Amino acid sequence: MQITAKSLKNVKEFKDHENVSxxxxxxxxxxxxxxxxxxxxxxxxxxxxxxSYDSFLDGLTDALRLSKMMxxxxxxxxxxxxxxxxxxxxxxxxxxxxxxxSTQWFFKKYGKDLLKTPYFFTGADTGMTTSAFNxxxxxxxxxxxxxxxxIKFTGIGIISSLKECLLAxxxxxxxxxxxxLVEGLGKLGCTLIEHLYSKTKRIIGIDTSDSxxxxxxxxxxxxxxxxxxDKFKEKVDVYCPCAYGPSITKSNINLINTDxxxxxxxxxxxxxxxxxxLYEKNILYAPDYVVNSGGAIAVxxxxxxxxxxxxxxYPQVFDIRNTxxxxxxxxxxxxxxxLEVANKYAIQRIGKLSVH
Length: 356
Known about the structure:
- The protein is an alpha/beta fold.
- The chain folds into 2 domains: 17-68 and 84-139, Leucine Dehydrogenase, chain A, domain 1 (Rossmann fold, 3-Layer(aba) Sandwich), CATH 3.40.50; 150-353, Rossmann fold, CATH 3.40.50.720.
- The protein has helices at residues 5-8, 56-76, 101-114, 130-139, 150-170, 187-196, 210-219, 274-280, 288-291, 294-304, 314-334, 338-353, and strands at residues 19-25, 28-35, 44-51, 82-89, 120-124, 179-183, 202-206, 224-225, 236-241, 258-261, 284-285.
- The mean pLDDT is 90.
């Protein structure tokens, strides 16, 4: 699909965005940078993901959803910046060969192209390897996550938020009698398992990659691995989406068999409308951009103070739980889904924090 400045405005997800920059190489478009809020005076932050898409429009839509979500995420974390997102298109069925010069050139070119959007600062997202990260960072100072590990802080924020969900739903934050389903056994999924492994009754793992399943089993021998198609066949207490989204769709929402949904993945819902369906099913959905904001908080601290130490980041990451507690309480009093409450708070704070 050919996208022009005029047709871009007809893409539903483009609403309220500042701009989209298309990245070109000799073969055509190889990626894009989507800016929801941000300009020369107020930088924006967001991740860079490397992924295969069925169509260019799918990649564009993904980037637009992610950049808007980042604006909301930063607003609820009380950070006065806008949101952005970058997507690099990975050809379907073609593995990325990290050892070949053409692949290294690809990432270095992206690092140089970042300079064309000087107010966009980015970190690693799904699909980016350490080698890719290093090649990009070699060519741009706009890539963050060199000093502080965003995955570590994402995990800390989610685990503390999980305890708040348990307390709200069951009246206790104890884990020892809980069964938890983790979908996506990459770095983020395994970080959550590491926190939960010795504390829960049972952990079930799912991943579409056999190699990821084997790695997770080698590291955590007592987890159970099931097939992706079986993920909703039995009741679990907590479902943690940590894989490519959306994990909750119109086609599977009636199959979901859990009390609580809280995970590290971005854009877990196919549509925000599904939050109401979950709420009416008495499923507590913790808004993804609220609970997984620990990594964003860490990299922005790194941006502000390059020599920052980890201990200075913990208080704001632990405060994620307090934000979630307020959202859940308001949801209960107002009888509306937590996501609707979170969106309301985010929109209010965007104006107050002056991200334009």
